[in-house]
Design brief:
Blueprint (H helix, E strand, L loop, with lengths): L1 H13 L1 H21 L14 H12 L9 E7 L9 H14 L5 E4 L14 E8 L8 H16 L3 E5 L12 H17 L2 H29 L3 H31 L4 H28 L7 H32 L30 H11 L1 H16 L7 E2 L11 H13 L7 E6 L6 H13 L4 E4 L3 E2 L5 E8 L6 H21 L2 E5 L1 H35 L3 H26 L4 H4 L7 E2 L2 H29 L4 H28 L7 H33 L8 H6 L23 H7 L1
Parallel strand pairs: 5-11
Antiparallel strand pairs: 1-3, 1-4, 2-3, 6-9, 6-10, 7-9, 8-9
Length: 742
């Protein structure tokens, strides 16, 4: 591995014009594809294998001409104080609005509230339901504008009017905080390298990688049903790892220059040593992201695969484009310890090995090696305390009730709750499939009667059969709000009754609707968490055994990850569910944590956690293989890697924190969760717990059964194969042929 990447790095350094041209061509091609492709909407949502999805599919078959997942809107009217919606003047305004809402090619149906009895008992609130032919993700902007204009006209006539439903779904906005995150990353890079040019290389290459990845996603969005959330998450993760991977290559390059190597040789060795760590770190992230497909939720699978593709691009850029750009930079990128004239001097610092005062990483590692038990206990107890709120984790999917109170969707939600009860915002749709029944009408009536007798039921509408008369829909209004456990119990109760009804009438009862879909999705994600953990951690464990040639080091890495991810989930619960520091984080409404958050965090955080494990511990392994004692190898690893790993973690935290300003609650929550998780994992687990455990284990940390050592291929992450190249270095003209033979 190290020898191949060494040759690749030297080749890229020498053939820099060709390498740069390839990446510019790829960026241009992706950009042209994105510009010419149809604009992306939000990805359609389905959960295969669940009862609610089966009901949606059945509705599409049995009710031709209607779209079960078509966008909906509720235009809610409230009469002025002291008036009723049944007053003649108010009726006239509503009927005019209904007529205006019907005007549009994407409108399927608009219900008149006075014909459907959609007026509250006290007469102060009424609503008109609008159904569209396409999903909320596919609606034209002109259709949304027409909906907003109709509501505005009614407001101008004197009524309070708000609009709810998924028809107003809009692309998320990230705001200025994303730019601030990148700016912080730039400052950290300048401080780390002491050079504007060296600091600029990771930023430029990361932006190129994200540009290619996101543009490719945009180009394929229409064909593969990739939504705006997919590209946002890909850019978030791709930018963070892209900067980090390039940072490690450039840092190792400057260290090789400080050892007195020529620039091409330094580029090759940086790619061979740090590049090997980049490859394996990138593989762990890709495994974790692609592994999300085991959940079998298409949207989650697409998000994971798209982000994994962007990570793969970041790895390739770090291995090829970075050495090429280093070739262009020449002497402007200075050896480690030498500052640029712009930042203060141009004088060369003392050689690191000759310096009288050890660096911060060395001093910290020496302290941990002397006090491993105290550091270990403090780290574990601290993360355990942070994880306590995770015990109160409540999962759900957001609805209009989780929107900020400043939005029209939230105000419409509140008006409907006040006028018709909390459960009105989460109606359940019961689909009765009586195709196998001898008496379909009797079956429809029996279902309605049984549901009326259940707890927490306010209203059960009469069955509405299809033209064939073999399938009907029944709408059930619960007493409780959609996200409550009482409503979840009602869904299960209806399904339990359905089993009895099927035995008596041969009619199948299915419960669907947004509320039921949310419940089924949460359950499916919960069921998939353990298999997903086993798959991802298992594969990464095998990969790390290959990298470190040890059993205990990968085991320690996995256990440390569990500590950091649980602490991060605790922080997410404290902010987004309990409301701690919610104002500071821009969280307008607290509530259940999104169902996909735990499994997504597990996947992404595991991959990123292994990044720091690989980058830091490979330096320790390298020192140990080259003859140092275990405790000294820990100190050496920190001496060379702590500064860079710290910079990488701060950069990643800054990038993820930049997405906390997003208007999309899922992006905001994921940005916060990942930023906190990286903080816990990098600074507590990898910087404190890991060296403490390695100090306690000593030589046992690097133990591997002899039979397994013989069976495993030697990937040479430490660059042992490069140590002989000082004496037998290939001629420049032979590099191309050597790469082919490798």
């Amino acid at each position: 591995m190290a020898t191949f990447l060494y040759k690749l790095g030297r080749l890229a350094f020498r053939r820099r014009h060709f390498v740069a041209l390839i990446w510019v061509a790829l960026l241009t091609l992706a950009g042209v594809g994105a510009a010419s492709a149809p604009a992306a909407g939000n990805s359609s949502f389905s959960v295969p294998g669940t009862e609610s999805q089966k009901a949606f599919d059945l509705l599409e078959q049995r009710f031709p001409g209607t779209t079960a997942d078509g966008a909906t809107a509720r235009v809610v009217f409230k009469a002025p104080s002291g008036e009723k919606m049944t007053a003649a003047a108010n009726k006239k305004i509503v009927k005019k609005t209904v007529a205006e809402l019907k005007d549009g090619s994407e409108v399927a149906k608009v219900d008149d509230p006075y014909k459907t009895r959609a007026v509250s008992k006290d007469g102060t609130v009424a609503y008109a339901s609008v159904r569209y032919k396409v999903s909320g993700m596919e609606l034209e902007d002109s259709t949304r504008d027409a909906l907003k204009e109709a509501a505005q006209h009614a407001r101008g006539a004197g009524l309070t009017v708000e609009v709810g439903g998924d028809a107003l779904t809009a692309a998320p906005e990230t705001g200025a905080t994303e730019v601030i995150g990148i700016a912080i990353a730039a400052v950290v890079l300048v401080i780390t390298f002491g050079s504007l040019l060296a600091a600029g290389l990771p930023l430029v290459t990361a932006l190129i990688g994200v540009g290619i990845g996101v543009s490719t996603i945009a180009a394929l969005a229409s064909a593969l049903d990739l939504g705006t959330t997919t590209s946002t998450l890909a850019s978030m993760i791709g930018l963070a790892v892209g900067i980090d991977y390039a940072l490690f290559i450039v840092s190792r390059y400057r260290a090789e220059l400080a050892e007195g190597r020529e620039r091409e040789e330094a580029a090759g060795r940086a790619a061979g040593t740090a590049g090997s760590a980049v490859v394996f770190a990138g593989l762990t992230v890709v495994i974790a992201l692609v592994g999300l497909s085991v959940v079998n939720i298409p949207m989650l699978t697409k998000m994971g695969v798209a982000a994994a593709g962007t990570v793969a691009i970041a790895v390739l850029i770090a291995l090829t484009l970075i050495p090429a750009l280093l070739g262009y930079a020449g002497r402007k990128v200075r050896p480690a310890g030498e500052k640029s004239k712009l930042l203060g001097g141009g004088r060369k610092a003392k050689h690191p090995h000759k310096a009288g005062r050890p660096n911060m990483g060395t001093r910290w590692a020496s302290f941990v090696v002397r006090r491993p038990v105290a550091v270990l206990l403090l780290g574990v107890v601290g993360l355990g305390a942070a994880a306590v709120p995770a015990a109160s984790l409540e999962l759900g999917l957001p609805d209009d009730g989780s929107q900020p109170t400043s939005t029209t969707q939230r105000r419409a939600y509140d008006l409907l709750s006040d006028g018709f009860g909390p459960g009105f915002n989460g109606p359940l749709m019961v689909v009765v499939d009586a195709k196998g029944s001898d008496h379909p009408k009797t079956a429809f009536k029996e279902v309605g009667k049984e549901i009326k007798g259940l707890k927490d039921v306010v209203t059960v509408t009469p069955a509405a059969p299809n033209e064939a008369g073999d399938t009907a829909t029944i709408t059930v209004i619960p007493k409780s709000k959609p996200s409550s456990t009482t409503t979840e119990d009602l869904v299960h109760a209806i399904r339990d009754k359905g089993a009895d009804i099927k035995a008596d009438t041969d009619a199948q009862v299915l419960v669907t609707g947004t509320t039921a879909m949310n419940i089924d999705t949460s359950q499916k994600l919960n069921d998939a968490l353990v298999p997903y953990l086993a798959l991802v951690v298992g594969l990464a464990f095998l990969l790390l055994i290959l990298v470190f040639r040890s059993i205990l080091v990968p085991l320690k890495a996995a256990l440390g990850f569990l500590l950091s991810v649980m602490a991060a989930l605790g922080a997410v619960v404290a902010v987004f569910q309990w409301g701690w520091l919610s104002g500071l984080m821009g969280v307008d409404e607290t509530g259940p944590i999104m169902s996909m958050m735990p499994i997504f965090m597990v996947g992404v955080v595991f991959g990123l956690a292994m990044d720091y494990e690989v980058f830091l511990v490979t330096r320790m392994r390298e020192a140990y293989v080259h003859g140092e004692k275990p405790s000294q190898a820990v100190v050496t690893g920190f001496k060379h890697g702590a500064r860079v790993v710290t910079a990488a973690a701060v950069i990643m935290i800054a990038v993820f924190s930049g997405f906390i300003g997003s208007s999309e609650s899922m992006i905001k929550m994921i940005g916060f969760g990942l930023a906190v998780a990286v903080f816990f994992d990098a600074f507590i687990v990898r910087m404190a717990i890991v060296p403490a455990v390695l100090a306690l284990l000593g030589k046992k940390a690097w133990w591997l059964p002899k039979w397994l050592d013989r069976a495993l291929p030697n990937v040479d992450v430490e660059g042992e194969g490069l140590r002989t190249r000082d004496e037998d270095r290939p001629r420049d003209g032979d590099v191309d042929r050597e790469l082919v033979r490798a």
